[in-house]
Amino acid sequence: MRPGDRIGIAALSGPIDAERLSGGVEALEDLGFEVVLASNLRSGAGQEGRALFAGSDRQRLAAFHELAADDRVAGIVFARGGYGVTRLLGRIDWPLLASRPRPCVGYSDLTPLLLGLVSRTGTVAYHGPMVVDFARGLRPEERTSFLDALAGNRGTAWQLEPVVGVSAGRPEVVEGRLLGGCLTMLAATTGTGFLPDLRDSVLLLEDIDEPEYRIDRLLTQLRTSRQIAGVRAVVAGHFTNCDARDSLIDFAEELGVPLLVGLPAGHEAPNHTLPLGAPVRLDPEVGTLDVIA
């Protein structure tokens, strides 16, 4: 997907106020994209249901499927996170999405949908900025990461910090698919059938506004669910307003895998665009993560 293409804006989670929607659309147009709003975001749409969501479950789902069925739409960026995607996972038309593969970009509450795209359609999905992030104004490095990722360019390797005592003694290079996302959403989908097999993956974790005991509880739930058996490494993005380091160390040590922190992804800037489902190479000794061509 490149500037000049038509890009759809979908809202499967919480509502987005008109000012931020307008600002995000303008920023995407400034990058050269032609923006198409999902029907539940259009002026006069009259969002149904509870104020917690960007329309009723039926309305949000129908609007998303309408965008997904439009062959003129080259990619989809989600408006915002919040809450609501888990209510819809069992009704997503996965065969429709598989028949019209395109980049889909989001994070936070969209984590289960992105992983569903990877596991159920065989495509790559993107953990990256949403309309609310474009509205705040992306940093130059975020714009470059977004455009490069969607154009299929590898970009440069990310430089991470190996955590001493966890990564030490494991200098071998690790290769696997990049999977993961928001920790809260990963834990929320354990046991539902919608969390894909994470075996042989490099597991991305990030989150926001969670106290230390909740971070530890979420990681413990993931670990004891056995759905992360065979994970090869853990990379941590932003844990915004979270005290997560000790719990992440315990988590990685229990799994017996290297832990690296400092990936620029998550609920604060910079939020780079990462290809979930793509093969990556992680060098714990020098601290680099890069996408394998």
Radius of gyration: 18 Å
Class derived from helix and strand content:
alpha/beta
CATH topology group of the largest domain: Rossmann fold
| Count of folded domains | 2
Q: Report the helical percentage.
A: 25-40%
What's the CATH superfamily of the largest domain, by name? Answer: Murein tetrapeptidase LD-carboxypeptidase, N-terminal domain
Instruction: Count helical runs.
Output: 9
Give the arrangement of secondary structure elements.
Layout: E1 6-10, H1 18-30, E2 34-37, H2 57-68, E3 75-78, H3 94-99, E4 104-106, H4 111-121, E5 125-127, H5 131-136, H6 140-150, E6 158-159, E7 161-162, E8 174-182, H7 183-188, E9 201-208, H8 212-225, E10 233-240, H9 245-255, E11 259-261, E12 274-276, E13 279-283, E14 288-291
Parallel strand pairs: 1-2, 1-3, 3-4, 4-5, 8-9, 9-10, 10-11
Antiparallel strand pairs: 5-12, 6-14, 7-11, 8-13, 13-14
Helix pairs in contact: 8-9
